[in-house]
Design a protein that fits this description.
heterodimer; A: 120 residues; mainly alpha; Arc Repressor Mutant, subunit A; 7 helices; 63% helix; B: 162 residues; alpha+beta; Multidrug-efflux Transporter 1 Regulator Bmrr, Chain A; six-stranded antiparallel β-barrel; 2 helices; 6 strands; 21% helix; 37% strand; AraC family transcriptional regulator (chain B); GyrI-like (chain B)
């Protein structure tokens, strides 16, 4: 079954397991045994983001949570943990996405964690 | 809300089938019954439900203070045997959850889930010795969730830790 939701689910799960690595079209296509051409065509048809933007956004948002909950880890180490070559490229990408540097973001008021749920 | 018992648990491999919702928590809540029904009907059709063993979860992949509402991902999931044969559909996928978790064992009514999550982060994780691990947290329904605001049920909240 190779529809878009299925592709998206498995691509997100792949990113989840490879947060510390560079992730390419070839990686995510191989993960679901789909040709790069077919993957790219499906993704481009349905997504408002390019694959690179999608991967980068998920990683940056995950790193933002981690910046707040693990203040004992340096920005440089966090950059490596999310597959960036160095702190400056991470800083640039982070600032582009959130409008502030990781250092400023980390110092802002603690993130409330008011997960609310009442599901069934 | 009663103070929970907290245990540390290492999950070697917990396989789940899931339906993933993308959108705000309000939209998720409006759709959650339908999502669970979709999950249950798939599980029934594929004979994946094991009475008293199968557990149902809600997984929170993103933080609403960081991720735009339209991109928030929430999954409803059900545990299945590791070796179960599953033919995935477009909507229903499977994955394996593993790692260390701090687990809060709560007895909650419908209005107390937010307090329970706050307790796990503010009163337990950020106030103690354990360090957060970069993985998603989830809630697991030990007994069937309450149908109204008076009833209580047993819910475990799993916070990933190193």
């Amino acid at each position: 079954m190779q529809n878009y939701t299925w592709l998206l689910n498995h691509t997100e799960d792949y990113i989840e397991s490879h947060l510390d690595q560079k992730i390419t079209l070839s990686d995510v296509a191989a993960n679901i045994h789909m040709s790069e051409y077919h993957f790219h065509r499906l993704f481009r048809k349905h997504s408002k983001e390019t694959l690179n933007q999608f991967v980068s956004r998920i990683k940056l948002e995950r790193s933002a949570i981690f910046l707040r909950v693990r203040k004992d880890i340096s920005i440089t180490d966090i950059a490596y943990r999310y597959g960036y070559n160095d702190a400056s490229s991470y800083n640039r990408a982070f600032r582009r996405h959130f409008g502030v540097t990781p250092t400023v973001f980390r110092k802002e008021q603690d993130m409330p964690s008011n997960k609310d749920s009442s599901n069934i | 809300m009663l103070k929970p018992t907290i245990t540390i648990e290492n999950i070697e491999a917990m396989r789940v089938i899931y339906v993933r919702f993308r959108g705000s928590y309000n939209e998720f809540r409006k759709n959650s019954r339908k999502l669970f029904e979709q999950l249950f009907s798939f599980a029934e059709a594929n004979q994946l439900i094991i009475p008293d063993v199968s557990k149902v979860l809600t997984i929170y992949h993103d933080n609403p203070f960081i991720t735009d509402a339209k991109n928030l991902r929430t999954s409803v999931a059900m545990t299945i045997p590791l070796n179960a044969a599953v033919t995935e559909t477009d909507e229903i996928s499977s994955m394996v959850i593993s790692g260390n978790f701090g687990v809060g064992h709560f007895e909650l009514n419908l209005g107390e889930y937010g307090d329970a999550w706050n307790y796990m982060y503010q009163d337990w994780l950020f106030s103690g010795e354990n360090k957060a691990r970069d993985a998603f947290p989830f809630e697991l329904y030990v007994s069937e969730p309450p149908k109204n605001f008076k009833a209580k049920s047993l819910t475990d909240i799993y916070i990933p830790i190193e």
